[in-house]
Design goal:
about 120 residues; alpha+beta; 4 helices; 2 strands; about 30% helix; globular
């Protein structure tokens, strides 16, 4: 499935420097999702999704909505500018210092690995 979403309305209120939502200026969001029933099709389906996404964003510099990014590609965390990644890391340190909630696109508490990996 390739889903195109028109991003409009309140999504454009505020700015990215003061929130954790990265798509404040985007007009369209794209979700590439592969679904399959048989485990034997894992490799083929995942490859299709990655190739479809690479075709849509060949330079790999487009932003990402955290809930739409794959867990293993680092893209969601790399979307954040340095100041935002630092701020999220400090919030994580305060409210989740033991990193209990790490099964997401994790930003480690009080660390700056996300900033170093992002290259932004």
């Amino acid at each position: 499935t390739i889903l195109l979403e028109h991003l409009h309305g309140a999504i454009h209120d505020g700015n990215f420097e003061t929130s954790a939502f990265p798509l404040r200026s985007a007009q369209i969001g794209v979700l590439v999702a592969a679904r399959w029933r048989q485990p034997r099709d894992d490799t083929k389906a995942i490859q299709w999704a990655r190739e479809a996404f690479a075709t849509l964003d060949p330079s790999g510099v487009g932003g990402a909505y955290v809930n739409y990014a794959g867990r293993d590609d680092g893209r969601a965390v790399a979307t954040y500018p340095r100041a935002v990644a630092d701020r999220l890391s400090l919030v994580k340190k305060k409210y989740d210092p033991r990193n209990l909630f790490a099964r997401n696109h994790n930003i480690a508490p009080g660390e700056h690995y996300a900033v170093a990996k992002s290259g932004l």
